[in-house]
Design brief:
alpha/beta; flat; Nucleotidyltransferase, domain 5; single chain; 452 residues; 16 helices; two-stranded antiparallel ribbon
C-alpha cells in the first residue's frame, strides 16, 4: 500500500495576508520581551531624537531586539541583522522590518547609559508580577574575557627595551637616508614608510608608559596608606602594653613602575586576570548578586580588580539605591573573597545581616564538624565576631550553603546557555553597559520561566 505524505506546496499563496501575530505561540519568549518593553519608560530614548534626517527605527523595537538577542545568545549587530531575515521570533519583534547592523551598533553605543536605567524598571515589574521576593541575596564575581588579546599587553620592562630598539632603528634609517646618494639601497626598503611606522610605535609606547606610570602612582598611594596604618597600629600597641611589638616592622613601599607592570594596547582598561582552570586572560571582573528565592539578578557592576574584596561596597550602594522601589535585602551571602572587617561593618551599618565566610572550607568536611553547634553566646566584641559565630550555627550553615547553588548557576547559564564568554565592546564604561544588557537578558529569560 502506497504511503500518503503531506504534500509539499511552496507555491500556493495565502488566502489571507499573514500577520506577525500568527508567527509565534502565545507563551513564546519573544512575545514576553515585547510585552515587557512596552511597559518600560523609554522617554529618555525617544526624546533624544531631533526629527531630522532619515526616519529612524522606534526605540521600542531596537530595545526589544537587543534584549531578546542578549537573552538568546545573539550579541553581534551583524548576526542580529541576519536574524531579522532568518528567525521567526526576530521577524515578530521587528514587525517584518530589517534594521541594518550599522543602525543596531550605533543604537547600542548611543544608549548604553539609558539602557542601564531599564534594569531596575524590569525588577520593579518582576516584583509587581510576583516573581521577585527580596530577602536574601548571593554575591559573587566571574572573569569574562575582554575584547583584547593578552599578547597585545606591553610590560614596563619590554616597553623600555622596545623603545630603545626603535630609537636605534630610527637613527640607522636616518643615516641610510643621508647616504642614499652615495650608495644603493635595497629596492624593497621604503625609508619614509619605515620611519612613519616606527614613529607610530614610539607614540603608542609613550602612551602605554604614561598609563603604567599612572597606575603605579595609584598603587603606591594605596600601599603607602596601608603601610602607615600598620605603623600606627604597632605604635598604639606599644603605647598600650609598654612593650615593643614582636615581628619585623612593616616595610615602606617602593614607588614607581615595576618590570612586570603592563597595559594592553587594544583595551588599556582591561586587566590580566587569573581564569578558572589555570592560566591568565585579558579580562574584566563581572559582579552580580542574585535573589536566592527566584534566581533573578539584583545588582551588577564591572570591576578592573582581579579579587573581590573591594566589590562589596559598590554592591551595597546599588542595594541601597534600589531599596525604595524593589524592597530591602535582609541577608547577604558572600564567599571568603569578600571577607574583611570593614566589609562586615559596612554591611551591618546598612542593616543587612552579613554571611561572609572568613575562611575557605575544604571539601569532605568530617561529619561531626558539619553538624557541630557552637555554644550559645549573646555578647560579642564586634560585628565580625558575631558573624563568625552565626556562620558556625546550623541555621547559619544552612543559609550560607544556598550561596553556591544560587549565584553559580546564574553565571553558568550566562556563559553556557546564553553563550556570553567575551565582551564585544572596549573600555570599562562600555563593558559596564554591555554587562547590563547581559544581566537584563538573563532576567527576562528567568522571569519568563517563572510566570510560564
Amino acid at each position: 500500500m502506497a504511503v500518503k505524505f503531506i504534500p509539499i506546496d511552496r507555491d500556493t499563496p495565502h488566502l489571507f495576508p499573514p500577520s506577525v501575530q500568527d508567527y509565534l505561540p502565545d507563551d513564546h519568549l519573544a512575545r514576553f520581551v515585547v510585552d515587557i518593553v512596552d511597559l518600560l519608560d523609554l522617554s529618555a530614548l525617544t526624546s533624544s531624537y531631533a526629527g531630522r534626517g532619515s526616519q529612524p527605527y522606534h526605540p521600542a523595537l531596537m530595545v526589544a531586539l537587543l534584549f531578546y538577542g542578549y537573552a538568546t545568545g545573539t550579541f553581534s549587530s551583524r548576526k542580529l541583522e541576519k536574524a531579522t531575515y532568518d528567525s521567526i521570533p526576530y521577524r515578530f519583534i521587528c514587525a517584518n522590518t530589517h534594521p541594518d547592523h550599522d543602525s543596531i551598533c550605533a543604537f547600542r553605543k548611543r544608549f548604553l547609559k539609558e539602557l542601564e536605567g531599564l534594569f531596575v524598571e524590569i525588577l520593579v515589574l518582576a516584583k509587581e508580577l510576583g516573581t521577585l521576593k527580596m530577602g536574601t541575596v548571593s554575591l559573587d564575581g566571574t572573569k569574562i574575557k575582554a575584547n583584547a588579546s593578552k599578547h597585545k599587553a606591553l610590560s614596563w620592562k619590554y616597553a623600555k627595551a622596545l623603545e630603545k630598539q626603535l630609537r636605534q632603528e630610527v637613527e640607522e634609517l636616518m643615516r641610510l637616508a643621508e647616504a642614499a646618494d652615495n650608495s644603493e639601497l635595497p629596492d624593497e626598503l621604503d625609508i619614509p614608510e619605515e620611519l612613519k611606522r616606527r614613529e607610530e610605535r614610539l607614540a603608542a609606547i609613550a602612551r602605554a608608559k604614561q598609563e603604567i606610570e599612572a597606575r603605579a602612582e595609584e598603587r603606591h598611594a594605596r600601599e603607602q596608606a596601608a603601610y602607615e596604618e600598620k605603623v600606627a597600629k604597632r605604635k598604639r600597641r606599644e603605647d598600650e602594653t609598654g612593650k615593643k611589638p614582636g615581628g619585623r616592622p612593616p616595610t615602606p613601599p617602593q614607588g614607581g613602575p615595576r618590570d612586570k607592570d603592563q597595559v594592553n594596547l587594544t583595551d588599556e582598561e582591561s586587566r590580566i586576570m587569573p581564569c578558572s582552570g589555570g592560566g591568565f586572560e585579558q579580562s574584566y571582573n563581572a559582579q552580580a548578586s542574585v535573589d536566592i528565592d527566584t534566581g533573578l539578578i539584583i545588582t551588577r557592576h564591572i570591576s578592573q580588580q582581579p579579587n573581590d574584596q573591594q566589590e562589596l561596597t559598590p554592591t551595597l550602594s546599588q542595594l541601597e539605591e534600589q531599596e525604595e522601589v524593589i524592597g530591602k535585602v535582609e541577608n547577604l551571602l558572600g564567599d571568603a573573597g569578600y571577607f574583611s572587617a570593614d566589609n562586615v561593618r559596612s554591611t551591618v551599618a546598612q542593616e543587612i545581616t552579613p554571611y561572609l565566610s572568613d575562611h575557605r572550607e575544604p571539601h569532605n568536611i568530617p561529619l561531626e564538624e558539619r553538624f557541630q553547634e557552637p555554644p550559645d553566646q549573646q555578647d560579642f566584641a564586634d560585628p565580625v565576631e558575631e558573624m563568625k559565630h552565626r556562620l558556625r550555627t546550623r541555621e547559619g550553615k544552612a543559609l550560607y550553603a544556598k550561596r553556591k547553588s544560587t549565584i553559580e548557576p546564574a553565571f553558568g547559564l550566562i556563559k553556557q546557555v546564553q553563550g556570553f564568554r567575551q565582551f564585544l565592546l572596549r573600555g570599562v564604561e562600555a563593558v559596564q553597559g554591555e554587562w547590563n544588557l547581559v544581566c537584563i537578558g538573563y532576567n527576562l529569560k528567568r522571569m519568563h520561566e517563572l510566570v510560564s
